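Run log // design_07
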């Protein structure tokens, strides 16, 4: 059973320049971007989500958070849900994504709350320390529910005709709208409709697991919830982008060794790459020495499948990379490579090519994106994808609504 409730939101004072206060989620801000957002405004949300110092000083962030509340920089709303809409440029048209902000009652992952990716211990520990000091969620995690009938989306069309509580354009020219829902009949309808649903975690696995650990340790009923944005699986505004890997020169890769697990072919031009995963023709690309190679799993790889996973999971792009290359050929793991700073992640082919032309990185793996329906189906089957298998877009902006569990 899902318990998704209205909440007393903490938001910025509307007299402040909100366009300078919001930022991307903490975990997608690159090191070089951190300074940009911290310097954008003294009250930018990044001063809380990441902090002014490295390593992170959680006690100092807590003091700043309390000061902002005491000074009226952050103010409380009355109880309610919040409809959230994003409008953004996608190709040659304006696309829209709708979601609902509320607080989700925590429960063990697997039955009703579906994870889809594996997590790292470092980010989980980081968010746990921040949660302990602030007893607040500074930004929502992102969940996906299934609404084939479009019952809730039909409500959103009516609500968005009203004047929004918040309208702001962000650093990347997306428009963000927030409407408060405090009508009791609507609240009851939404709450009851979601009870029997399952929710896929799109973004926020580390924050969810940190929150569950905190609640399990404290048994504090106020800590039994987490701030979440939920969107419909069938919302055409939700995009799933590929996550490519850019690899350091220190990681030596012999093309001939790849033939152990792959048939290797000369690939297409960069502009003609097929970047959507198809289970009937699985492959990944390797960009090396100004050539694109297409790596198709061979019989040896297919037959080496572990019986604990499905045929579909075994041929996912990230599985081909993890099991076929990192572990199967280089005898390492992506976690180890990441901790040593030997790989970078990118969703942009232009950025990828720029990095390869630097002195630090030499080649890259270009991976097709996984359709959201496949991610959902695997999650229902309780199969977690390898790390960094998905990149859901557009990310919710941080700083529109926060939740303090003691209020």
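design_07 sequence
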């Amino acid at each position: 059973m899902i318990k998704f409730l209205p909440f007393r939101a903490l938001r910025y004072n509307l007299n402040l320049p909100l366009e300078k206060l919001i930022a991307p989620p903490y975990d997608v801000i690159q090191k070089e971007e951190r300074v940009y957002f911290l310097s954008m405004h003294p009250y930018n949300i990044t001063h809380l989500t990441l902090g002014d110092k490295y390593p992170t000083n959680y006690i100092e962030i807590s003091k700043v958070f309390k000061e902002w509340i005491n000074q009226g920089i952050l103010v409380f709303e009355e109880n309610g849900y919040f409809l959230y809409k994003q409008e953004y440029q996608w190709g040659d048209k304006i696309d829209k994504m709708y979601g609902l902000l509320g607080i989700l009652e925590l429960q063990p992952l697997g039955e009703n709350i579906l994870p889809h990716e594996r997590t790292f211990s470092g980010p989980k520990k980081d968010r746990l320390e921040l949660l302990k000091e602030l007893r607040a969620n500074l930004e929502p995690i992102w969940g996906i529910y299934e609404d084939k009938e479009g019952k809730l989306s039909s409500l959103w069309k009516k609500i968005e005709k009203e004047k929004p509580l918040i309208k702001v354009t962000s650093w990347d020219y997306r428009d963000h709208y927030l409407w408060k829902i405090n009508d009791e009949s609507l609240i009851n309808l939404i709450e009851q409709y979601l009870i029997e649903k399952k929710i896929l975690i799109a973004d926020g696995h580390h924050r969810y697991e940190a929150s569950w650990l905190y609640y399990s340790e404290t048994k504090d009923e106020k800590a039994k919830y987490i701030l979440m944005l939920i969107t419909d699986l069938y919302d055409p505004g939700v995009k799933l982008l590929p996550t490519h890997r850019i690899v350091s020169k220190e990681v030596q890769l012999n093309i001939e060794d790849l033939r152990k697990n792959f048939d290797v072919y000369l690939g297409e031009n960069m502009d003609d790459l097929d970047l959507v995963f198809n289970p009937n023709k699985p492959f990944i690309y390797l960009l090396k020495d100004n050539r694109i190679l297409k790596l198709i799993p061979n019989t040896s790889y297919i037959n080496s499948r572990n019986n604990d996973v499905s045929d579909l999971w075994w041929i996912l792009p990230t599985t081909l990379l993890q099991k076929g290359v990192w572990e199967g050929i280089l005898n390492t793991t992506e976690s180890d490579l990441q901790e040593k700073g030997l790989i970078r992640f990118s969703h942009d082919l232009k950025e990828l090519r720029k990095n390869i032309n630097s002195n630090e990185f030499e080649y890259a793996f270009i991976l097709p994106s996984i359709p959201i329906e496949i991610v959902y189906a695997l999650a229902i089957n309780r199969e977690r994808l390898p790390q960094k298998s998905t990149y859901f877009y557009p990310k919710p902006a941080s700083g529109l609504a926060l939740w303090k569990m003691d209020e």
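The chain has 14 helices and 21 strands.
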